[in-house]
């Protein structure tokens, strides 16, 4: 049983965004500090990657640990209610992104994923970005 009322749960869910999330803003800030120029949410590319760096042919997906079920992360939880909805929903998210990444690679793009749990520390995030780019 959900500990929130239907109305409150609906309100919470309506506040979840798929663009301009806090993790995404932190990654963009780090990229700017490192001198990278980028584009956001290119509709021209398969899967609309969160960040596109055309100069180096790279796209970044900024994944929420819950929404994309980050292995080994404490945020990777399965809701206790409405499992018949959530389990297939989260699996579809993972499968869709796998297909999107394969298509982008086929089209010549380098792809990287930055997880929500990896953006908390600015220094660590910058080091990760330097390594992947």
Automatic annotation (TrEMBL):
> What's a Pfam family in this record?
Vsr
Q: What is its EC number?
A: 3.1.-.-
The family database entries (CDD domains) matched by this protein are listed as: Vsr
- Superkingdom of source: Bacteria
- Could you state one GO biological process linked to this protein? mismatch repair
InterPro entries, per database record? DNA_mismatch_endonuc_vsr, Restrct_endonuc-II-like
Q: What class of enzyme is it?
A: hydrolase
Stored Gene3D superfamilies: VSR Endonuclease (3.40.960.10)
| Keywords, sorted A to Z | DNA damage, DNA repair, Endonuclease, Hydrolase, Nuclease
For this protein, what is any one GO molecular function term? endonuclease activity
Q: Which residues form a coiled coil?
A: none
Q: Which NCBIfam families match?
A: vsr
Q: Which family does the entry's similarity section mention?
A: Belongs to the vsr family.
Q: What does this protein do?
A: May nick specific sequences that contain T:G mispairs resulting from m5C-deamination.
Q: What is this protein called?
A: Very short patch repair endonuclease
User: Could you tell me which species this protein originates from?
Assistant: Candidatus Niyogibacteria bacterium CG10_big_fil_rev_8_21_14_0_10_42_19
Q: What is the lineage of its organism?
A: Bacteria, Candidatus Niyogiibacteriota
